[in-house]
Amino acid sequence: MGIMAIVLSHMSSIQFLESEYFKLQSGREKKLSESKGPYSVFDQPPLEIPSQMLGPLPEDTCTYDLGLLKELIREVPLSTPVQRLTNCSRAGNESRLLCNHALRDRGLNQAYVRVSDNLYACTPEYSFALMGRGRSLIEHIALGFELCGCYTTQGARSLRMAQRPQLTTVKKICRQLEQFSGVHGVQQSRKACIHIVDGSASPAETTLVMLLALPHRLGGYGLPAPKLNNKVTRYGSKGTMVSIGDLVWPRLVVEYDSYQEHASYSQAERDARRRNDLSPTAKALQVTTNQVGDPEAMDHLAMLIAKNLGVRFRCRCKEYEERKANLRRELNRVNQNRWLK
Length: 341
Prior knowledge:
- The chain is α/β, with parallel strands linked by helices.
- The chain has two domains: 6-193, no CATH class; 203-335, no CATH class.
- 37% of the residues lie in helices and 17% in strands.
- The protein has helices spanning 10-17, 20-26, 28-34, 66-75, 124-130, 137-147, 170-177, 186-193, 203-213, 265-278, 289-293, 295-309, 320-335, and strands at 6-8, 82-86, 98-102, 112-116, 119-122, 151-152, 162-163, 227-236, 239-249, 252-257, 284-288.
- A five-stranded mixed sheet has the order 3-2-1-5-4. Strands 8-9-10-11 form a four-stranded mixed sheet. The protein has a two-stranded antiparallel sheet with strand order 6-7.
- Helix 5 (124-130) crosses helix 7 (170-177).
- It starts with 5 loop residues before the first strand and ends in a 6-residue tail after the last helix.
């Protein structure tokens, strides 16, 4: 009997590659422990898979080791059903533990990570390409922000967000998509890639940037995309100070206020709006969750940002208000909540 290999794909591959299980298998945990601090996820480099771990798949991806599958579900952990690629023409979803996808691109050696003789995983870039099929453009853009950001919402045992280093970058996704020209879902992935920004720290930041920077035809405000969680140099009487800004443009920083240092949500919102209104041409603005959730407040914020950037807001898109409402509904669905009105 030949090697029985499991080829993890789609979201199962993403869950695996961001897990402690994979860090130990690939030696990434050892490299991080040997490096000098700090240990913030923003200070860690994006995932770099060693070239020796990239390679061709075995001939047989039809049969699999059930014991290994159960171990992955338990130890990684992977959500069920586990998604895998298989070349078995008659492979149905014979187990409640598995969801089979047809293996069509065996020759893409740079698309597969060899973890062991009987375990492979699709790279983040290839998983992104595969997942372009059957997903809306907005949903796919949000997934790209997550893969290129420092957070995950894909944990099998928790619905809460967790922070982790970037799995990939926008530049790397775009480069790899050129090699995946025949992959189902690659066209949607290419459309999504041009709207993704590296470095998001949370779904809330992703939502704010998508609202501000997506083009009018997709319901956004069409503003220039900022850099996320980027270093900002401030000059004052006490000298030069370097800090991290949430959304950073050349002449403006927008800080996302998470309410942690306020007595209440309403107080945080009042404080942020008052500071912004008093400084219509300030170099720093603050925004709260309630402001992002309120369409009128968001309109006001977008106009304020445009004014500070020296951008003239022009919209020739038909039915723009309806497109904005559709975008907010879609983002609510992606985030599995209703905080955007």
